[in-house]
Amino acid sequence: MLQEDLREMIDAGAAKFPADIVICNGQLVNVNSAEIYQADVAIYRSQIVATGDVSEYIGPNTQRIDATGKYLVPGLIDGHLHIECSKLSMTSFAKAVVPHGTTSIISGLDQYVVTSGLEGVREVLDEIDMGPLKVFWGLPFITPYTLPQSNVGFNVTAETHREVQKWPEVFGVWETVSEFVENQHDDVMKAIELAREIACRYSAAHQ
C-alpha cells in the first residue's frame, strides 16, 4: 500500500470520508473475543474501517445493507487445499465456496504445475485474479513428488524457484515432503533458501 493510500485509509477510519457501504443490524461474530453481539460495519474502498456505532460514517451516497437476522463473520481461510481434486475450474470452485463463507485458500496448484508447467499456471492465476476468491499460492518445492524423481510432467527445480518466487502471487514454498528434507535434496534445500530470501520480501512488498 502506497503512503498516500495509507493516509487516505487512516482518514477514512477517522470518519473524515463517508463510508461506501454500511452493514446495519447484524450480529457480529468476534473471533478474537469469542463473542457475538449487535454491531454495524462501515466499509471504505473494500476495507472495514469501523465497527459498532458507525452513524458518523454514513454519507448521502453510502449504500446501506440491512443484515437483520444475519451473522457478520470474517471470511474463512482454507489452510490446505488441493483444488485440482475438485475437478472444477477456479471460477466454478469460487462460485461453490464463496457464498458459504470461504473467501481465501492456501494451495500449491500442484497438478496444474505438473501437467501444464508455468504457462498453464499463469493462465490459472489470471483466472483467479478475475474472481472473488483469494488464493495464497506456494510454488511446490519440487515436482513430481517421487523418489527417485520421475521425468513425467513439468519438473520444478531450484532455478524454477529463482524465477517464480518473484511473482507477486507467490507466498513461499508449498508442502515440503519430509523425505526430501530428511535426505537434504539439493533442489529442495535451495528452494527453501530462495523462498526465505525472495518470497518473504516480495510478498511483503506486494501487500
UniProtKB/TrEMBL annotation:
User: What keywords appear on the UniProt entry?
Assistant: Hydrolase
Extract the signal peptide range: none
Organism's domain of life?
Bacteria
* EC number(s) stated in the UniProt entry for this protein: 3.5.4.2
A molecular function (GO) held by this record is: adenine deaminase activity
Task: Indicate the enzyme's highest-level EC class.
Answer: hydrolase
Q: What is this protein called?
A: Adenine deaminase
Q: Which organism is it from?
A: Budvicia aquatica
Identify the gene encoding this protein: adeC_3
